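tool=predict chain=A
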Amino acid sequence: MSHNEKIFGIHTVESVLSRTPEKVVQLFLQKSRNDKTLNHIESLAKKAGLRYQMVDKRKMDDWVKGSHQGVIADIKVNDALMNENQLLELAEEQSNLLLLVLDGVTDPHNLGACLRTADAAGVSAVVVPKDRSASLTAVARKVACGAAEQVPVVKVTNLARFLNQLKERNVWIIGTAGEATADIYNTRFSGATALVMGAEGSGMRRLTRESCDQLIKIPMAGSVSSLNVSVASGVCLFEIVRQRILKN
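tool=predict ok
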């Protein structure tokens, strides 16, 4: 499904203009600003045959929540789409399925970072509950750097029930918890896997935890008790990827 959305920030807009300028519907640059960075954005726009409007900073401040750095663009967004039933069908077909499940992650920055990591690790979909979860806002998309168009975010009505439906399709459900006895480096990952990450601090909800086949932890050497959820997701996902590469 395609729709238009505003993106902002030098790096984000520059990336779109360099890689996929055909997505840009309108480009807005801040008036009374003249520097090398903005001049580079202008040259990219001209190279792509795109017109741009010069707009007052105050007006741009009203358009977006966040630091736009004098650059805003309306772009065509084509999210990767998948629903619960389609994902369950995929689980029946793919014996090496890899999913990332986020329980209670409400910060759009974290959702965007997890999406970016999931895309890099070859994850088929990111699963979130319909309640108590961040949505794909402009902020999440900015952090995801295009991953939202590659990795579908599947919202499920009842997360514990959905995990049990995955188990019925031979998907091994691995949850992360600080009190787990096994760590990721002495755990063997094989076959279809769903990695469940809880919110930083509160962790997974009770029913989610009870739906897991196994609980693991990341060994921590310092004084910090937990990692940011996107960092922890990256550590766990790429250990799974490493083992799959060695197996092949």
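The first helix runs from residue 10 to 19. The mean pLDDT is 90.
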